Amino acid sequence: MKNDVKIITLFAALGSTAGSMLMPYIPLYGQEIGMPIALIGYLVFVYYISEMTARIPMGSMTGVMGDNTVISAGGAFFFISSVLYLLSDAIWPFIFTAQIFLALGFSVTWVTIPSYVTRAGGSLPVFTFSIGLGWLFGPLIGGLVRDVLSMYHLFLVYFAMSIGICILAFMFLKSRTQNYNKSKNIRRNLNFKKGRYWLEKILNSSLESFKKSYVIFGSNKEVFIATTISFVVFMAFAIFNSLIPLHLESVGFTSFMIGIFTATNTAASSFVRLSSDRIINRGGIYNSLFLGTLIVGISIFILAFLANAKALILLSVISGLGLGIFHPVVFDLIAKGTNKEDRGVGMGLRGTVGTAGSAIGVVIFTNIADFSSIPISIAIFGIFMSIFTILMIVLYSD
Hints:
CATH class: Mainly Alpha
Radius of gyration: 20 Å
Shape: globular
Order of helices and strands: HHHHHHHHHHHHHHHHHH
CATH architecture: Up-down Bundle
Number of domains: 1
CATH superfamily: MFS general substrate transporter like domains
Largest sheet: none
Number of strands: 0
Structural class: mainly alpha
């Protein structure tokens, strides 16, 4: 693997570790400072709507400004969010702004970096596995710090890690400038210092990306399936990062136990990702994707009615096995369904449609929880996800 790909994969892994340290505990922090469930839903919604808005333009901005500039900005986004989280301990509305910058940082991780990895000849299974490691250890670190110290100390740890992310962004920039052909592109891109010209290029490119996305989505089966299934799977991610931590705390889980729940889910997902090629070859690419998604929907439905810690951890493992096939398959579908020039747009489209699912889902189901109960809302989502996947199986099974 090339040095620049190694650095950028480590960037994504550290960013995932840092972000996943916080995400399961943001709803708990909201509850801790007195937010009602519906407002907690909007706190999570701010993150997802920001990510949704950024993803397609992020792909086009990479084309205008270059990978170096966008990835450097990604490091800055993580750092700014860490400062705002720290300030939110004194001025709580800052946490909403911090969620926006965290979303921008993750948009770089999920759009620009995988696009670069595929164009540079890197390995998507290794990339997704590295991100999985971040999601494995992040919640455990976050839960332990929150239980032993406080949420403020967790924000401090995140601040320190954001500095590491910025250092990796600088290392990537230095690695890339060692190549003469690539450095020519960097100099050309950095000559766009006339703000108006640069802004017009970004806006025009973003508008063109939305147009391209519409065409690709409607005319390409691989991209259509990848983005459509992402819609409901990202809804599940939102439930895992909002209602499920609240449900687990209500049945007696500590923050560290919530971290164990999240980590076992991620460990199971990572195991499946390493074996994804064999699974797809045996089951077919669409059947494998749909079966995994159906397993997640059924697991979430059952989870809503359980309070036993061992049973909940077991369901976490089962749902993780279902989720594990998702990222390798959808990234591969996007890569197969697009040429190199449109790949960033395709990745952005998948991320935008998926994150729209998260944004819509978290608002709908936290409001349902607010006027009914958290378990009922989780169960309704599990039913919805299962029915949605069954329809996809009927229409698009191999």
